[in-house]
Design brief:
The complex is a heterodimer of chains A (763) and B (369). Chain A is of the alpha+beta class. Chain A contains 12 helices and 48 strands. A 6-stranded mixed beta sheet of chain A has the order 45-44-43-48-46-47. In chain A, strands 35-36-1-40-41 form a 5-stranded antiparallel beta sheet, with no helix packed on it. Chain A has a 5-stranded antiparallel beta sheet with strand order 22-23-24-25-29, with no helix packed on it. Classes of the chains: A alpha+beta (763), B alpha+beta (369).
Chain lengths: 763, 369
């Protein structure tokens, strides 16, 4: 047993990161689908009678999508991709502006009817932005709330207004035209706003600053605004509802009553009545004029996370953690269970006689709702009176039992790809095994970004054990699944620690001992499209100056690093080897940030060359443009080579030896044989073989051995070639094991490895 | 010495409890940390009775190998079997075994009573578990004929052994804490249980045990740079963390953190804060939300201005009398005198006698195992 000591509170601590990281997000084959829970919905009704209605969905996969809604189908028309973390809320402003907020601490404005044009990124929040509110009849006012109690009120028109002196906090991430004013031909149909011509290079502080509504002591999780944009209501982990003057940001009043966090808020059009949903499972109706709670409704059995009301504010639709959607008459307190799903409900959007339901699942469902005449639902029977205390619902129900849902099936489903919920990096450090929310187990190759094996619904643990390989590769990347898919993170210098023989990757035309750096080749694969576009753009004289500037910057940066290795020629290294070619049909997205402008996300096929060098971390450019890698200390493995006890074979060695950690045991065998047969001095071997003496204070350079000379060396002594085996801890080692594998699985110590050799017995 | 004992006997007179013994313990060079804890444990009546029962059952076997458990049992047996009602006993054998077992207690430096208590309880548990394990092994290797005869018992024994072993030390002192973390996004509560033999409480000036326990269980928000990684959300989220007592122990031992490391001084400073510890304690913040009542029966008191100086004494309640044990000396004190050991309201006070380890026994039979 563990020793039982005093129990006391402990604290966690986090470590700061030094250099910017580069992340790539692997996409499944179907890019028209979300692959994580849907946090928010926004409906855009068509003005024309024959026009299409649009639904906007914001997801935990970091993206928003626009769907054209038909009677029996929904078509994905656009993907809005620029956020680098969860999209938490989205609202429509005016006729054509979509505003989203994210856990990446930003708000973004988009051209709602474009194919993904981001018009502005607004940085004012210091932590996750959780919620937005828009005034229906005021085309410009949007409020945002987030962690840390931050609430800001934005004038979107002012925030988007062209200005020569924009703040550095406001950046441009649109496609098409860059700040320098150079016009490039567009390869796809995109709508360009005039604001795309913003300059990004000014550092003046003058610029738009939103109104700050100060007063929340804790995080804000819900916001709502009245039609004219004069009243703002917010709630969160403080457990109170706060009311603000939206024009000045000043506090108006505080409403108490909920016993747990506020998670959803709704205001009627005049701003007189407010509905709140809480983690205490209650819905409350507040009269803001009278500053009191008029009604409380106990219909849910768990937290209430989503609210939607009929246009006349006579009925409320509510959903939450109990997977259930309820309809409640605010006056009579009559309530009905409309439907029950399989996931907690996150948001609702009423659409004529239907309601869209978003949940932690990646699919969105449309259910009948009778929004124009809710009484029809109560006439179907099975309604009950909502109590005003939690858990009292059963007592007032006529049957005394749980309600039966009015509807069994949704009328339409927008399917999503199930999110990845479990993952394991395999020991070869190139494959990741995943399980998704539907139970499917897949094997991904992260240097190509594709699924190489789909095992279906099998046991994840069994498959993991089945796929185990006894190999030891440094951990050159980390993985997380917060976006519902695999996000692969590369950090310098750790990511450059892994090498493999080209032969093992089936790269043809290379010498036997040629090695590739996994991170370098992956970066070249990721940036191949951008490099091609950049080369095309470099043909014009104007970017030449930029190139020179970039070169200077890189040179000054590299001067701070000593002993930088330069491998091969630039022409040769520009080639992307087949194991590192990323798919063009489902390309990954890159998430990173450069020296300015903040983090961004973009598909590798959308990197059209206009992205400046300043937008990438310097170490990535150093790698793919200048073939420079940071100093790496762990690519070598030191070891001692000794005869087995009692062995008749003996060669003289010069103490400690050093070799690449990926060196195979059969190379050590060859080394011993050469020493025995050729009886050459040790010094001359370093020029020929892969093994070199480990001299103090320096690491010898690896030199490729010529196959021809090696084989010719064997020819005269073929008859006399003895059979040698290598052991560690009296265990005979397989010739295919690498030194790193022996160290990890046989030696298992931090000391220098000790290998023994002997003649194969039985000869 | 004899005079003091006689004095105590006279003071109690006819009220001297039947069968009880009040013996001081000799100091072998700064062993008051040991003596004070031993007195508190001796007057933890359920613990004493079970230890003496263990000693009676294992006396012949125990002679084979000496350990801290046998030495402690031997010491308690010596005290309880004395002809005299008062006097002094030398815990020489126990102290020698203690110094042999743990290097920390080998020097003649002053030691921390709480460290000693922790070491002792865990050592007793280790010994009992090893004994149970070896007994189990003996059972499995018995001859076939005997095994056939013992079949049903053996099967039962095997079944009983599947769960972690619960010794009588656990039954007296062990409670369970639960660490609950609630993600504020998906509101999933993650609970992690943790066993304890005592609670270490942070203290504040002019506070009480009830308020210190409340602080111990208070909700802490994980936010900003210290977010919680939620397995359900697969990401960092705000969360609320709270500690609750899931299973209260029969004997609740409370350690007041009176020694605080001062970075600038490079050493520990004693916090002489006044912390009121009641004679009756009600635990209200438990996971089961049922009130548990405890009664104070012993206090280990630290005397002095710093952790490496000074002295330890014990206050013990026995048969409704309060006794003061100071190594060899045993005196009777008024119950009202217990509050003089709460601590000082002023920072520089002449009073340096402060309650350090509190021993409460639960009232009522609900918690007995």
């Amino acid at each position: 047993m563990h020793r039982v000591g005093s129990a006391s509170n402990g604290n966690n601590s986090t470590r700061p990161r030094k250099e910017k990281r580069l992340t790539y997000v692997l996409n499944d084959s179907d890019d028209s689908k979300h692959c994580a829970g849907i946090n928010c919905l926004a409906l855009l009704m068509s003005a024309a009678s024959d026009g299409s209605d649009y639904l906007f969905t914001g997801s935990r996969d970091g993206r928003l999508k626009r769907w054209a809604l038909g009677v029996d189908r929904a078509t994905c028309l656009a993907t809005f991709e620029s956020h680098v973390d969860w999209v938490n809320d989205a609202v429509l402003v005016g006729d054509s502006t979509l505003v989203s907020c994210s856990s990446d601490t930003t708000l973004k404005t988009w051209n709602a009817l474009s194919f993904g044009t981001c018009t502005r990124t607004l940085r004012q929040h210091s932590d996750y932005v959780t919620c937005l509110a828009a005034a229906e009849k005021n085309n410009n006012t949007v409020a945002s709330g987030g962690l840390g109690g931050e609430v800001f009120i934005w004038d979107i028109e002012a925030a988007l207004a062209p200005s020569k002196c924009n703040d550095a906090m406001v950046d441009e991430s649109s496609n098409g035209i860059n700040g320098s004013g150079n016009l490039l031909p567009l390869t796809s149909l995109r709508t360009i706003n005039s604001s795309d011509n913003m300059s990004m290079h000014t550092t003046q502080t003058q610029g738009y600053v939103p109104i700050s509504a100060k007063g929340h002591k804790d995080s804000v999780y819900a916001l709502t605004m009245n039609e004219s944009g004069t009243i703002l209501v917010s709630g969160g982990t403080e457990k109170v509802v706060r009311v603000w003057d939206a024009r000045s940001g000043s506090k108006t009043l505080k409403l108490r009553g909920h016993t747990d966090n506020i998670r959803a808020l709704l205001l009627d059009s005049s701003g007189r009545y407010c509905l709140s949903g809480s983690s205490d499972s209650m819905i409350r109706l507040w009269d803001i004029g009278q500053q009191r709670c008029v009604h409380s409704y106990a219909v849910h059995t768990d937290s209430v996370w989503a609210l939607a009301s009929t246009p006349t504010f006579s009925h409320v639709y509510s959903g939450g953690r109990d997977f259930s959607l309820y309809l409640t008459d605010l006056q009579t307190r009559e309530s009905s269970l409309l439907c029950t799903g399989e996931h907690p409900i996150l948001q609702l959007a009423l659409h004529d006689d239907s309601i869209w339901v978003a949940s932690t699942d990646s699919s969105v469902h449309r259910w009948p709702a009778e929004g124009c005449d809710p009484q029809k639902i109560f006439q179907r029977g099975n309604s009950f009176l909502a109590g005003n205390l939690s858990f009292s619902r059963a007592r007032v129900s006529p049957e005394g039992s749980t309600p039966v849902p009015v509807y069994k099936e949704p009328t339409l489903t927008i399917l999503g790809t199930p999110a990845i919920v479990q993952h394991e990096v395999l020991s070869n450090k190139r494959h990741v095994l995943t399980k998704d929310a539907s139970g499917s187990v897949k094997l991904w190759e992260i240097t190509k970004g594709i699924v190489v094996e789909d095992y279906g619904k099998v046991s994840f643990e069994e498959k993991k054990e089945e796929l185990f390989e006894m190999v030891s590769i440094p951990a050159w990347f980390t993985v997380d699944t917060r976006l519902g898919s695999l996000s692969v993170h590369l950090d310098t210098p750790q990511c450059f620690s892994a090498e493999m023989y080209s032969a093992d990757l089936n790269i043809v035309g290379k010498p036997e001992d040629d090695k590739v750096n996994l991170a370098r080749e992956t970066l070249k694969g990721l940036l191949a499209h951008w490099l091609r576009k950049r080369k095309q753009r470099m043909g014009s004289p104007a970017p030449a100056n930029g190139e020179l500037l970039s070169g200077k910057e890189t040179a000054s940066r590299s001067s701070t690093h000593s002993r930088i290795e330069v491998d091969g020629s630039s022409e040769n290294d520009a080639m992307v080897y087949p194991p590192f070619e990323f798919s063009v049909t489902s390309p990954p997205s890159i998430i990173t940030e450069g020296t300015h402008g903040g983090p961004w996300r973009k598909k590798i096929t959308d990197l059209d060359g206009t992205k400046d060098e300043k937008d990438f971390p310097w170490w990535c450019l150093d790698c793919v443009l200048n073939n420079r890698l940071p100093p790496r200390e762990n690519t070598k493995c030191s070891f001692y080579l000794q005869p087995c006890e009692g062995s008749s074979v003996q060669i003289l060695t010069q103490g400690k030896l050093s070799a690449p950690r990926i060196l195979r045991i059969h190379k050590v065998v060859n080394y011993v044989i050469e020493k025995m047969v050729l009886d050459k001095p040790l010094d001359s071997l370093s020029a020929e073989g892969s093994i070199a003496p480990g001299l103090t204070g320096s690491q010898s350079q690896h030199q490729a051995v010529g196959d021809g000379s090696f084989r010719s060396g064997f020819q005269p002594w073929q008859k006399l070639r003895p059979s040698i085996e290598i052991l560690c801890y009296n265990q005979v080692l397989s010739p295919e094991m690498s030194l790193a594998t022996v160290r990890a699985y046989v030696w298992k110590k931090s000391d220098d490895l000790v290998l023994n050799y002997r003649l194969v017995q039985g000869r | 010495m004899g005079a003091a004992g006689s004095k105590l006997e006279k003071a109690l007179g006819d009220q001297f409890p039947e069968g009880e013994r009040y013996f001081g313990l000799e100091n072998f060079g700064n062993t008051c940390y040991c003596n004070s804890v031993l007195q508190a444990l001796y007057f933890c009546v359920p613990f004493r009775e079970q230890l003496l029962e263990y000693y009676a059952n294992n006396k012949s076997i125990a002679d084979a190998e000496e350990n801290l458990l046998t030495c402690l049992a031997d010491l308690f047996s010596q005290i309880s079997s004395q002809k005299k009602k008062t006097g002094v006993i030398a815990p020489k054998r126990f102290v020698q075994r203690l110094k042999k077992q743990n290097e920390l207690f080998r020097s003649y430096m002053h030691q921390d009573a709480h460290e000693f208590l922790n070491f002792l309880l865990n050592e007793l548990v280790d010994i009992l578990e090893k004994e149970a394990q070896s007994a189990k092994n003996d059972q499995e290797t018995s001859p076939p004929s005997e095994k056939a005869a013992n079949g049903p018992k053996n099967g039962l024994a095997n079944g009983a052994k599947k769960e972690p072993l619960v010794t009588w030390v656990h039954k007296n002192f062990q409670g369970i804490l639960t660490n609950e973390t609630r993600c504020l996004r998906c509101e999933t509560v993650t609970a992690r249980d943790e066993t304890f033999f005592d609670l270490s409480l942070d203290i504040e000036q002019n506070s009480s045990i009830t308020s210190c326990l409340k602080n111990f269980s208070s909700t802490e928000t994980l936010n900003a740079e210290d977010k919680f990684f939620c397995d359900k959300c697969c990401s960092l989220q705000e969360a609320q963390k709270r500690m609750k007592i899931k299973k209260p122990p029969h004997i609740l031992v409370i350690h007041l953190k009176r020694f605080k490391y001062i970075e600038q001084l490079g050493r520990y400073k004693k916090l002489s804060y006044r912390v009121v510890f009641p004679l009756e304690l009600k635990l209200s913040d438990t996971a089961e939300n049922s009130d548990i009542e405890y009664s104070l029966f012993a206090v280990v008191v630290h005397v002095g201005s710093g952790p490496n100086h000074g002295h330890y004494v014990s206050l013990v309640k026995s048969h409704n009398h309060w006794l003061f044990f100071d190594d060899e000396n045993v005196e009777m004190i008024d119950e009202s005198a217990v509050q003089t050991f709460f601590g000082s309201s002023q920072e520089y006070s002449s009073n340096t006698d402060h309650g350090y380890i509190l021993f409460y026994e639960s009232i009522g039979s609900g918690n007995r195992n």
